[in-house]
């Protein structure tokens, strides 16, 4: 693929990915405000944006098998932990942005766990074995992730464990 086309598809992938996430967030807001059909419309169009992003990712060669995808996940989470969020935290500190620092810290701490979970999954997938667990619990405030046992309260942000989202 020629470089100009690759860059265009990469930019389109980023834009479609962001639109997907924005529309899911907008859907939550519409639902809370009592607009269930508007919420559903946001979710439906978010799915369409996901389809666009997936098509672009496929053409860019960003999708591999499970072991390769887990390695990509590990690399991404590790980059966020070791480079991206520390740099963003330094900027937020310099500019005295307390809300940004909180959001960055929440993400940084949760990403550490994500990298560990992906590494565990990758090792199992290399052996042609799946992970074994009943549920995954996610803190809806900071993204802290726990497998099987929901904590009494989130160790990152203190949010009550009974309010975690179960997958």
In short:
By secondary structure, this protein is mostly helical.
Report helical residue fraction.
55-70%
Reported for the largest beta sheet, the result is: 3 strands, antiparallel
Strand content: under 5%
What order do the helices and strands follow? HHHHEEE
The radius of gyration over CA amounts to 18 Å
Morphology call: globular
The structure class reads: mainly alpha
Total DSSP E strands: 3
Strand order of the largest sheet: 2-1-3
Low-pLDDT windows of residues:
none
Number of helices: 4
> N-to-C terminal Cα separation, in Å?
38 Å
**Mean pLDDT, rounded to whole units?**
97
Number of domains: 3
Name some characteristics of this structure:
single chain; 167 residues; mainly alpha; Ferritin; Rubrerythrin, domain 2; 3 domains; three-stranded antiparallel sheet
């Amino acid at each position: 693929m020629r470089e100009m086309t690759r860059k265009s598809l990469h930019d389109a992938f980023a834009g479609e990915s962001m639109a997907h996430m924005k529309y899911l967030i907008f859907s939550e807001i519409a639902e809370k405000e009592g607009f269930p059909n508007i919420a559903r419309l946001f979710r439906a169009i978010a799915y369409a944006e996901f389809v666009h992003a997936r098509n672009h990712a496929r053409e860019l060669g960003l999708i591999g098998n499970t072991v390769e995808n887990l390695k990509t996940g590990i690399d991404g989470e590790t980059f966020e932990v070791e480079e991206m969020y520390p740099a963003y935290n330094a900027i937020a500190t310099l500019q005295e942005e307390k809300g940004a620092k909180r959001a960055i810290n929440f993400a940084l701490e949760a990403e550490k766990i994500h990298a560990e979970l992906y590494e565990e999954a990758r090792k199992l997938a290399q052996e042609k074995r799946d992970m074994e667990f009943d549920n995954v619990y996610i803190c809806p405030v900071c993204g802290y992730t726990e497998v099987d046992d929901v904590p009494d309260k989130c160790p990152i942000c203190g949010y009550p464990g009974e309010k975690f989202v179960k997958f």
